[in-house]
Amino acid sequence: MIRDAQTALFEEPNPPEGQEPIQWLLLTTLPISTIEEVQRVVACYCIRWQIEIYFRTLKSGCQVEERLFERFSRFDNCLAVFLVVAWKVLYLCHLGRSCPDMDCEIVFTPSEWKAVYMVVTKKALPSKPPTLNEMIRLIATLGGYVIRKSTQPGAQTLWLGLQRVNDLSHAWDAFGPDSREKSDNQSDHTCVVQ
């Protein structure tokens, strides 16, 4: 039972042209008699939504509830790793939106971004690394995201794409253009017995 609940009706301030503004009803037990109090409650709700996405990533992406261990300590260790993985997925989503022009090599290794770039775009590598936003979009396409100017990839398509990045980067290291230089240099110093 909710006691002393207050309600406030909100409306989207700048809807897209030709669209009805979205309206939502805020039901809260917190005080909302001033605009500052209302803004505080809305800010808390926005944070709550990010927490929901975080736990969805942990449950669906990392499939933490599907893990079966004989001892709790093993589950505890697994959970500790998956908490970091879920955080990284959300952090990458956030960085791609808040710092879209950042160099992708701040987050991704050369073999990661080069492999993904070649597989997704089927073009020659650019002279300089792509931006972080471009790289995140390319990785998300590996998870089912369809690139559009009007949308950004979400946590689900990003976590699915990131699962493939590791395999692609290992293949790049083993078979990519940089691997030939390594294997040529190694063959000079290798003794082959017949």
Automatic annotation (TrEMBL):
GO terms under biological process: DNA transposition
EC number: 3.1.-.-
Signal peptide: none
Domain Transposase IS4-like: 28-75
Protein name as annotated: Transposase for transposon Tn5
Keyword Transcription among record annotations: no
Enzyme class name: hydrolase
Keywords: Hydrolase
Domain Transposase Tn5 dimerisation, first and last residues per copy: 84-166
InterPro entries named in the record: RNaseH-like_sf, Tn5_transposase, Tn5p-like, Transposase_11, Transposase_Tn5, Transposase_Tn5-like_C
Keyword Transcription in record: no
Organism field: Neorhodopirellula pilleata
NCBIfam families given in the database record: transpos_IS4_3
GO molecular function, one term: DNA binding
